[in-house]
């Protein structure tokens, strides 16, 4: 597979503040790549640089083979972007917003009209197309922005916090659109988020970013296995299991705790691999197993493991609040 | 190329048609000025107006100037409204588009020039009812002059809006530019009778030429030429074209460099 985005040592400085401190990563074609991190980590700055509306202070990046500094027009033509804050014309209707977008991207005539209809149907806004955007709800605006980004069929779609400030139902809905978009149109997707569940629901690969640096990169499973310990719960028939715990240490188990009369909590490196081993051992010991389940660590556990802080309470408090007020004003 | 100019014009015109309350507001404002200020001044000045206004009565003196002033204010405000696009986010949509920014800004300026000229023509139509001194045949000249100045002043507004960061500076700019330019333009009083220092400052502002030019086309009287015989209508038009072109270029330059920082 080809690389859709290649970033090497990218840095951005605002005066004395270094928002992005030399990050490198690649995004493969067809991938949903997520930038996960707290507010103020440098996610939006990165997305703006890749989308050519900010110039990097140093470093290099190519999007679909085009250099973002030397060939911004070529980059702009093949990407779509959905900004964190709304960027619609409130006075115009949904249809007109899409129409202007299409014309700006060189489309026109019958084919543009068809694209608009298709995009509006995709996000289920067709019946509201002639209403001014100022009458749309927050979720409807987001959907319209998704539709708009699809008009010119971008090869790579950037989404900056796609579901921030939306209610849980709408969020799931937006996730479905993003997934479908990736499946149906084979669009490469680069998104930023500070929601763990969002990163898990969407991303095939995740970079965890904190204070302008990438501190971890990999698939969701990769990242979780870094925390090291999945916890396997084994429920047995019978009570006297102290001895069993000791015996199990032999089988990929780091530590075993006897937490209830007949339940063992086993810390293992990777539960998916450890469970068959554990079962084999228990069978050898002629112990009957009633139930096995395991809990995987969450991405939040990963972030805590790497930084000692939780994503949600890092820095962003005031920014989030200010954003909320801004949103309340503009939406 | 035409495409990119067209699409922004389309947007500005659509927005204009959508904002009915604003159209009515501007319209009412103009009418009130004409009726209250115009008729009020006219009744005071008309006994002497034939001597000081080169044979015009005050309404015939004021109306063509109001036409120019109305275009100036509407298009300047239109340009400044880039700042609201910044605030409400639409600017990002334009900045990210794979099109020449100079052309989008030109399209935008043309759109605003078109709508503000249209507005002013409607106002002028009412003026034709109030006085019979205006020359209807000059309408094409008036429209062209209106579009040229509209283009220039929208661009000036865009340049200023791109340079200032927040809408808070907005009122200041409006107060510091719109008001003095309006008064100095010689729209409300004859500049030939103003103190010399004021006349000199007035000559720096392109609006002064626009006002004089509109007055010349509609009534045949040029006040400026009375003071400076060299300022023929051709020269005045040239000055206006040069000023507008300069504003367009400056606006395009500034807008080209715009980022989201």
Could you walk me through the main structural features you see in this protein, from its secondary elements to its overall organization?
The complex is a heterodimer of chains A (331) and B (261). Chain A is of the alpha/beta class and 331 residues long. Chain A folds into 2 domains: 3-224, P-loop containing nucleotide triphosphate hydrolases (Rossmann fold, 3-Layer(aba) Sandwich), CATH 3.40.50; 229-295, YebC, transcriptional regulation domain (Alpha-Beta Plaits, 2-Layer Sandwich), CATH 3.30.70. Chain A is built from 12 helices and 14 strands. Chain A has helices spanning 43-50, 72-78, 94-104, 109-122, 138-150, 168-184, 196-202, 220-227, 242-248, 271-284, 299-307, 317-330, and strands spanning 3-14, 17-28, 32-36, 58-63, 66-67, 79-82, 156-160, 188-193, 205-210, 213-218, 230-236, 253-260, 263-268, 289-295. In chain A, strands 6-7-8-3-9-10 form a 6-stranded mixed beta sheet, sandwiched between helices. A 4-stranded antiparallel beta sheet of chain A has the order 2-1-4-5, covered by helices on one side. Chain A has a 4-stranded antiparallel beta sheet with strand order 12-13-11-14. In chain A, a hairpin with a 2-residue loop joins strand 12 and strand 13. In chain A, helix 4 packs across helix 5. The longest helix of chain A has 17 residues, at 168-184. Mean pLDDT of chain A is 85; it is low at 314-320. By secondary structure, chain B is mostly helical. Chain B is globular and about 60 Å long. Chain B contains 12 helices and no strands. Chain B has one domain. The longest helix of chain B is centred in the first third of the chain and has 33 residues, at 20-52. Chain A binds chain B through residues 14, 48, 51-55, 73-74, 76-77, 81, 83, 85-92, 96, 100-101, 103-106, 108, 132, 148, 330, and chain B through 3-4, 6-7, 10-11, 14-15, 18-19, 87-99, 104, 259-261.
């Amino acid at each position: 597979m080809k690389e859709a985005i290649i970033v090497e040592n990218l840095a951005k400085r605002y005066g004395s503040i270094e928002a992005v401190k030399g990050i490198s990563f690649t995004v493969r074609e067809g991938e949903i790549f997520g930038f996960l991190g707290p507010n103020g980590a440098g996610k939006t700055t990165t997305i703006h640089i890749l989308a050519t509306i900010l110039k990097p202070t140093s470093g290099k990046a190519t999007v679909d083979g085009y250099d973002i500094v030397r060939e911004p027009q070529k980059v702009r033509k093949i990407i779509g972007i959905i900004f964190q804050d709304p960027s619609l014309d409130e006075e115009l209707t949904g249809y007109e917003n899409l129409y202007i977008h299409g014309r700006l991207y060189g489309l026109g005539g019958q084919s543009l009209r068809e694209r608009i209809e298709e995009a509006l149907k995709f996000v289920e806004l067709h019946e509201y197309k002639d209403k001014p955007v100022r009458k749309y709800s927050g979720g409807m605006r987001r959907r319209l922005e998704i539709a708009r980004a699809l008009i010119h069929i971008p090869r790579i779609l950037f989404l900056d916090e796609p579901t921030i400030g939306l209610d849980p139902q709408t969020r799931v809905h937006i996730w479905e659109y993003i997934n479908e978009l990736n499946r149906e149109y084979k669009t490469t997707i680069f998104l930023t988020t500070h929601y763990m569940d969002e990163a898990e629901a969407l991303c095939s690969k995740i970079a965890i970013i904190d204070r302008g640096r990438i501190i971890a990169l990999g698939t969701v499973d990769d990242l979780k296995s870094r925390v090291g310990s999945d916890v396997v719960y084994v429920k047995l028939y019978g009570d006297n299991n102290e001895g069993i715990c000791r015996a199990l240490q032999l089988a990929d188990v780091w530590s075993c705790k006897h937490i209830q009369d007949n339940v063992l909590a086993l810390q293992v490196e990777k539960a998916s691999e450890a469970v068959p081993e554990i079962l084999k051992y228990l069978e050898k010991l002629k112990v009957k197993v009633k139930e096995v389940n395991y809990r995987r660590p969450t991405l939040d556990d990963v972030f805590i493991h790497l930084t000692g802080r939780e994503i949600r309470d890092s820095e962003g408090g005031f920014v989030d609040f200010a954003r909320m007020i801004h949103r309340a004003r503009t939406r | 190329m035409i495409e990119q100019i067209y699409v922004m014009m389309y947007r500005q015109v659509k927005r204009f048609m959508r904002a009915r309350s604003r159209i009515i507001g501007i319209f009412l404002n103009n009418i009130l000025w004409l009726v209250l200020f115009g008729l009020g001044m006219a009744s005071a000045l008309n006994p002497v107006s034939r001597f000081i206004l080169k044979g015009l009565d005050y309404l015939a003196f004021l109306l063509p100037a109001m036409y120019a002033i109305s275009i100036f204010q509407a298009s300047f405000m239109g340009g400044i409204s880039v700042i609201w696009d910044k605030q409400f986010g639409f600017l990002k949509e334009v900045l990210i588009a794979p099109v020449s920014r100079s052309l989008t800004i030109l399209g935008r300026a043309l759109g605003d020039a078109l709508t503000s000229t249209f507005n002013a023509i409607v106002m002028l139509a009412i003026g034709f009812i109030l006085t019979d001194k205006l020359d209807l045949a000059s309408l094409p000249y008036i429209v062209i002059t209106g579009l040229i100045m509209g283009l220039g002043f929208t661009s000036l507004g865009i340049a200023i809006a791109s340079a200032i960061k927040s809408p808070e500076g907005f009122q200041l700019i409006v107060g510091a530019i719109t008001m003095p330019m309006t008064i100095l333009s010689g729209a409300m009083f004859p500049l030939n009778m103003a103190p010399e220092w004021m006349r000199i400052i007035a000559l720096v502002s392109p609006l002064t030429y626009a006002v004089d030019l509109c007055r010349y086309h509609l009534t045949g009287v040029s006040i400026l030429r009375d003071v400076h015989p060299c300022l023929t209508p051709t020269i005045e038009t040239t000055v206006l074209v040069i000023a507008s072109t300069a504003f367009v270029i400056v606006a395009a330059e500034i807008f080209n460099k715009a980022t989201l920082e």
